[in-house]
Amino acid sequence: MSNWRAVPRVSERSSWARGPRRGEGGRGYGGDIYGALSPGLREQAEGSVEELVNKMEGWSMELQRHCAEDWNQFASILIQCLSGESKKDASQQQFQVAWHGADCLSGVSGREGQAPPSSAATDFHRRRRPMLQIVTAGLEAQDAEIERLRTQLEQMSVRASRKRSQSQDLFTASRLRSVEAAAEEAQRRHAAAIASTAQAKDHLAERMEQLVGAECRRSEHQRLLGERRAQKVAAAAGLAALQQQQEEVLQGVVSARQSLLKAEQVWEQHAEEEIQGRWRVQSLLQEEEARLEAIAPKYRRQLQESQAQVICQPEMREEHAEQVVEKLGRDLPWETESELQQQRRLQELWRRELSETEHEMWAAQRHCRDQQRKMTLALASCRRRVETEEVQARAAPSPLVAELEEAQLQFHKIQDKMRQQATKQKVNDAFKVPVFQQRRTTVNEKNREWHELAALLRRCDALRAQEAKQQQSLREVQEQREALAAELSEQKRQVALAGQRRSAAAHGAERLRREHAWLTQECQE
């Protein structure tokens, strides 16, 4: 029993298994490894060691609990063996057995400084020696079992410490390898990031140069757009002048049409007057014929008498003829002469009015032809100008739109590359802590560049919207011109119809003139 060794305490075992802590500066177990580890890995290694130590402490506590249970079982067996004696003897025996068992457990055969046992105890030992031998043998067996368990516990603790040290060595070696690999990978990524950053800066400088060139081209396009806008303003002024000319032409056409309507009304009035005069002349001729028929018998009778007198008196033939003529002149009604004179006056007045109307009609026709020729020339020049402006407007925006689309595509590519670079930068942030301050300035510069690019794109969109608005205004002007052309064609058709009516009126007037000439000739005959 003298070779019993106390089991080390939990704090002693844990400190012995862990080795020197951080900051102790010892060269004990794992000191250089702990010094080489990072703080995170060091905490993880200490956590795993604490877990193993806690497991070993649990095993030792369980072994102590088993030993205590065995001791309690031995005490209960001893009490049962002594239960057959009297209470006094039992209490004395319990005291002696406990005293002897304590001596046996402590490895001392007697107690120094105390009196030897009494005769009752000697008798008790003599009578109960076989039982004590059995109990002693059992206790020795228990001691042997406890010693065996203690040796097994020591062996297990040694093996556990070895395994723990091996596992810690393997763990630290693997962690060191992983940390070294991670450090190499971080250095490689850092170098790649630096190279990509330099490449991105170069690419960004190229893009900035391209953007500066695009800005120059945009200013040039703005200047061209300003010139084109001025040309469009001039074209609009020309169109306004053309519209004013067209309005004047329309007013002239309207006035010509009104004059034609007046001429037609005059022609109709003259035709009605001609018809009325014709009927009046016919009625006068009929009246004259009736008068002549009424006068003819008397005239024939007088003529026969005069002829008879002339035959009878040849010398008075001339006087008789003169008298007959005077008589016939006196007999002719003066109303017929006045009617003929009035008819002649009306005919002369009608001829004068007809000539004036013809002159007015010819002047209106000449003015209408001149206005139509001017309108045709103005419309042709306006159409040519519009076609040239449309061709220029269609051809001019194409390079601007292509450049804008190319700049927008390049901006999207740059934005995608910057997003990828930002993602890579976020991944590499864990290995590049000092780069954060540098990244702030670069990010601000990138944000400023992005804002400039966004402003350029907004300007391009505004220019595109302005160009679309100008094209819409051009389309509206073209529609107005088409409407004016349609109106002019309608006016031309109306003028053609008026010319047809005028030609028909002229033909009717010519026919009436021929009939009037024939009537006058018949009247004169």
From TrEMBL:
Please give the coiled-coil regions recorded for this protein.
139-196, 460-494
Question: Is Coiled coil there in the keyword field?
Answer: yes
Has UniProt tagged this entry with the keyword Coiled coil? yes
Question: What are the entry keywords?
Answer: Coiled coil
> Region entry Disordered: which residue ranges?
1-30
Tell me what this protein is called. Uncharacterized protein
From which organism does this entry originate? Effrenium voratum
